[in-house]
Design brief:
The protein has 264 residues and is of the alpha/beta class. Helices cover 31% and strands 22% of the residues. The chain has one domain: Rossmann fold. Strands 1, 2, 3, 4, 5, 6, 7 and 8 form an eight-stranded mixed beta sheet that branches. The radius of gyration is 17 Å and the shape is globular. Bound molecules: S-adenosylmethionine. The site of S-adenosylmethionine has 25 residues, from helix 1 and helix 4.
């Protein structure tokens, strides 16, 4: 991927955006992945947030649901079982961690990793509100996970990998921490076709979950390179069509929310 910005500049822009969202959040000003400063939701057909979940969220407080910044429902893909250990990449305010905790039960364990200190603070305050004793939040980068090898049954992630300047490292790390046979279940923004280097240089659009999105063929190749098998990538809006083996012919990128699964 040609990219005008250094990884450090991308991390700074992403931490700045999500740090502000976490700090400024009140239940009255429910957040969005997008804010006033970017091309983003208004110019794409993509929606973000708690309305995307297939389950009832009534048992979670608005401090959790209002801070939902995802582009899908990775928990619906994860087929979680009691007793499992789950890792959420880019856990934000914690919504997917709390939903996972309900499914893995008291004998399970859920770890959320996020690089934005204000998000980790907010997630820990949410954890106290929902009394989710089996959930733990760790400050760290998803490209260098603070998680042991072969220790996780299921890795989930919701609208985060697109934000990473090094998606190869993200998949390598997810593979490292999964137990053999473990599942990767991801909602993420993906494209058919590539954004131009100029579009990628717009840090507001990148941090708004738009121009960091990678072409489906490149994305799937990075998963394969990490070692994943049984890779599936489908458009959330057309889930009957498998896209994992396809190459993109689009000249202008088509951005969509994808449901992605793979096995270690
Ligand atoms: C769009 S929000 C999604 C949050 C959450 N998954 C949800 O669905 O509400 C992106 C989150 O990922 C975190 N993040 C982005 N890039 C990251 C990286 N490279 N390492 C760790 N966290 C990252 C941000 O700090 C932010 O909290």
């Amino acid at each position: 991927m040609t990219n005008f910005n250094s990884p450090e500049a991308i991390y700074e822009a992403v931490q700045d955006r999500y740090g502000r969202i976490a700090t400024d959040f009140t239940p009255q000003t429910a957040a969005s992945c997008c804010d006033e400063s970017t091309v983003c939701c208004d110019e794409t057909a993509v929606t973000f947030g708690a309305g995307l979940y297939e389950v009832d969220l009534d048992n979670l407080p608005v401090d959790v649901t209002g801070l939902s910044l995802g582009c899908g429902d990775p928990i619906a893909l994860a087929n979680l079982m009691p007793g499992q250990t789950v890792l959420d990449l880019g856990s934000g305010g914690g919504i997917d961690c709390f939903l996972a905790a309900q499914r893995v039960g008291p004998s399970g364990h859920v770890i959320g990793v996020d690089m934005t200190p204000a998000m980790i603070d907010k997630a820990n305050r949410n954890k106290a509100k929902v009394a989710a004793d089996t959930v733990e939040f760790r400050l760290g980068h998803i490209e260098d996970l603070p998680v042991a090898d072969d220790s996780v049954d299921v890795v989930v992630s919701n609208c985060v990998i697109n934000l990473s300047p090094d998606k190869t490292a993200v998949f390598r790390e997810a593979y490292r921490v999964l137990k053999p046979g473990g599942l990767l279940a991801v909602s993420d923004m993906v494209t058919q076709g590539q954004f131009s280097p100029e579009a990628r240089a717009d840090l507001a659009a990148w941090s708004g979950c738009i121009t960091g999105a990678e072409d489906v063929a490149v994305y799937v190749a990075a998963m394969r390179q990490a070692g994943f098998s049984q890779i599936s990538l489908r458009d959330k809006a057309a889930p009957h069509v498998e896209l994992a083996g396809t190459i993109s012919l689009a000249v202008a990128p088509r951005l969509f929310s994808a449901r992605i699964t793979a096995v270690k």
